[in-house]
Amino acid sequence: MVPTFTLLSERDIAARKAELLARAGMPRHELIAKGLAYQLTPAEDAIKRELEDLDYLDGDGHE
Hints:
mainly alpha; 0% strand; globular
C-alpha cells in the first residue's frame, strides 16, 4: 500500500468545511454543542472530527 496525501488550499479547506456543515444540517455551534453533550450520531461525530482536522490544517482557532 502506497501512502497518499492531498494538498489543500485555503479555498479547498473552506469549501470542504461548508460541504460538511451542509451535510450535518446544522450550524457549527450546534454541532459542537451536541458533541459536548455526547448527543452526536456516528455520522455527525465523523463530520465534527473532520472539521477539527481541517481547522488544524487551516490554523483556525475553533475548538
